[in-house]
Write a structure and sequence with these properties.
Strand content: 15-25%
Distance between the termini: 56 Å
Radius of gyration: 21 Å
Shape: globular
Number of helices: 9
Largest sheet: 9 strands, mixed
Number of strands: 14
Oligomer: single chain
């Protein structure tokens, strides 16, 4: 069941003056790799996360604490403009902490930030390709699919145009504009291979910013879809059968890779990642085995390989990168439901893994 937003009715309230108050939406990641949020009032427009105080929530209701000791602390770490409330109102992405001040076990950002800080001189850049599917809560099928049976086979939907090919463009456009307003580094969108499936790209972002901006963009996607009464799925295989799964291909480079002769650094990083393939797979998303089958533009989950312009490889070197001898690599293994902090962290860690 879903309830559509009544924009016309809401408008007479949302346009009321706030009398100097600012609404800040605190957003955090729960114990199930989902997003939660709640709002607090402040009386000074925050210019950075440091302007906002620590807060707390009931972790026993989010899979992060027991009822007898349920407080989990949240500390803002990234700040965005709020496209839903407008004005000076903000969205604050937060890290989670235990009452003693140590990072909560579900707080993967904290460890990722340490890795990024340790290798800041390398200037690691990321571009994240977030695939997702829209679902109709009434039919429990992808948005636009018939109530009985299946739509036409894949082929006409990827970057498609026109009725019968695209289902949910209004949501995609609304999300895109909301991200731009918020200050998220969204670089593009497109319809994907399966009907009702789309992708947005975040980046290039340096270091920890990649994970921050992807999580913020996911939050906005959930909120926009909520207004339309449509559900979002980032499961890597939302529909079983001969339909493409969903990934979060991760494009990565360091300054050395982007400079002349950078292909040497790219190939060295790939070699290092190949030695830790299963360690990467362990943090590349739940149920990724349903997607990495060697079919539907994927490599097999138990095999590591790479190649130029090969979309069936674990890691793809884009053709223009191979030709120019510098640029970036694309890790095609991460699933759509990754925690980007875990993925970007291990990629940087492996790139600079000490040689035996």
């Amino acid at each position: 069941m879903s309830v559509l937003s009544n924009a016309k009715l809401l408008e007479k309230y949302i346009t009321l003056p706030q009398n100097g108050a600012v609404q800040v939406e605190y957003v955090w990641i729960d114990g199930f790799n989902n997003l939660r949020s709640k709002t607090r009032t402040v009386y000074k427009v925050p210019k950075s996360p440091a302007d906002l105080s620590e807060w707390n929530y009931d972790g026993s209701s989010t899979g992060q604490a027991e009822g007898h000791d349920s407080d989990v602390l949240i500390q803002p770490v990234a700040l965005f403009a709020d496209p839903f409330r407008g004005g000076d109102n903000k969205i604050a992405l937060c890290e989670t902490f235990n009452p003693d001040g140590t990072p909560h076990k579900t707080n993967y950002r904290n460890a990722c930030k340490k890795i990024m800080d340790a290798h800041a001189d390398a200037h690691p850049w990321f571009g994240l390709e977030q695939e997702y599917s829209l679902f109709d809560p009434e039919t429990e099928k992808p948005y636009g699919w018939p109530k009985h049976g299946f739509p036409e086979a894949q082929g006409k939907y990827y970057c498609g145009v026109g009725a019968g090919k695209i289902f949910g463009r209004d949501i995609v456009e609304a999300h895109y504009r909301a991200c731009l307003y918020a200050g998220i580094k969204i670089s593009g969108v497109n319809a994907e291979v399966a009907p009702g499936q789309f992708e947005f790209q975040v980046g290039p972002c340096e270091g920890i910013e990649a994970g921050d901006h992807l999580w913020a963009a996911r939050y906005l996607l959930e909120r926009v879809s909520e207004d339309f009464g449509i559900e979002v799925s980032i499961h890597p295989k939302p529909v079983k059968g001969d339909w493409n799964g969903a990934g979060c291909h991760t494009n990565f480079s360091t300054q050395a890779m982007r400079e002349e002769g950078g292909i040497v650094a790219i190939e060295k990083a790939i070699k290092n990642m190949s030695k830790r393939h299963m360690e990467h797979i362990a943090v590349y998303g739940e149920d990724n085995d349903q997607r990495l089958t060697g079919r539907h533009e994927t490599g097999h989950i138990n095999t590591f390989n790479y190649g130029v312009a090969n979309r069936g490889a674990s890691i793809r070197i884009p053709r223009h990168v191979g030709k120019e001898g510098k640029g970036y690599l694309e890790d095609r293994r991460p699933a759509s439901n990754i925690d980007p902090y875990r993925v970007t962290g291990i990629i940087v860690e492996s790139t600079f893994w000490p040689e035996n």
